[in-house]
Amino acid sequence: MAAEKDTDVNKGDRRGTVCNVVISQESETGGSGDGRPPIIFNPDFFVEKLRHERPEAFTELVLSNITRLIHLPGAEFSQLLDEEPKMPNATAAGGFFRSFNFLKRKDKGVVFGMPLTEEGIAQIYQLIVFLSKNLHVEGLFRVPGNSLRQQTLREQLNSGADIDFSSGDFHPNDVATLLKSFLGELPEPLLTQRHLHAHLKITELSLFDDLGNKTSLPDKERQIEALQLLLMLLPTANRSLLKLLLDLLYHTAKQQHKNRMSAHNLALMFAPHVIWPNNMNATDLQENLKKLNSGMAFLIKHSQKIFRAPVYLREHARLQFADTSMIHSKDDLELLSVGGSPFMSAWKRSAARVRSDSDSHAEEALRELYRHVTHHMPNSAKKKKLIRQLGKQSTPGTPVSENTTPTSKKHARSRSFGGLIKKKVLGSQPAADRRGKENISCDPVS
User: Fold this and answer.
1) Measured in whole angstroms, how far is the alpha carbon of residue 97 from the centre of its chain?
2) Which of the residues 76, 118, 137, 322 has an alpha carbon 20 to 30 A from that of 213?
3) End-to-end CA distance of the chain
4) Domain 2-27+53-301 listed as CATH 1.10.10.60
5) How deeply is 98 buried, as exposed, middle or buried, from its count of CB atoms within 10 A (0-12, 13-18, 19+)?
6) CB 62 within 8 A of CB 232
7) What is the pLDDT of residues 121-148, one digit of tens each?
8) What is the largest CA-CA distance in the chain?
């Protein structure tokens, strides 16, 4: 009876840890104060919704922004376009933020040397929970454990057993070494081989001086943004385990005054198992070794940020499922400055399909678009053409009509962006009402 009680307590602790992992995705983790569990708000809800309901639009959006930040030649870019492999036993409606629920259950099956599965991650999660309670051990992940105890633990994990770490049969160094062995025996690195070149390019992102010259100082903000995007393209199982692992290493590094393991030291221990490709020859490895190790250290240091979606991605995803055609964030406007990007095309198509309940939305959108064109796009023939098109769609009092020369009457079949917006808003109203409303003046956007 006592053993059964201990097992139940152990499982309860694991469920609690799972909850903490999910809650720690954001800093706002306060409870209600009345004994009830805190409400978990997921700010990336619409991003995940877009991923699963409109995967092509999601991938197009993420890739267009990755190429905005780093340069990937054709061959390297095509690697990111590879179809994501389906995770065995994963449900069709599953996602990254839902996937932590599978840690509550496990099915029997060999986990070492096999492709990642939900069941395998659930088994390995036992190691992570135990290690998270022993971060004070000096030399954790550096000092090797006992090989016989590791073999016993490996067999138990492969059999699908619940490990009773409270018995004291295993030392933290045994568990830490076995965790590294599991990662090293995966068929491919946790970060996948097809993302290797992108990770190398991210480590090269640096700041520019006032004259536009590249400096040697890393641009951490752009590196974090690029990683946020790139990690969204990982297979679900890889991303789930990576989040659990980096959380563990992050908190290990925070206690380096006890365990003597800094983020740099941990990176040296885990880079070969997480990011090094299996087929890289010695020459290429030597050339990129510093980048790979520094990239791993960066992942550890910023693990609490890189699994969040960028703000503009959240807003764009929300707009895909909202009844509005307005742009609400500065980040969205900055994103639109990439002329001809897939995002711009997707935004135009989605805005043309959106229904609006008043004609003011059309004028608001025209003003926002005009401000973007005049202030964010470089001077070019394309910019002049867009301004002329916006002038044709403007009404008296708008900044578009005030800053453009008179143009000829718009052709009835014009399909300009402004025309599509007005057609959607005003198309179903009587002609007399439309003429009356079109004479309402609008103040320029501040």
Assistant:
1) 11
2) 76
3) 71
4) no
5) middle
6) yes
7) 999 999 999 999 999 999 999 999 999 9
8) 89
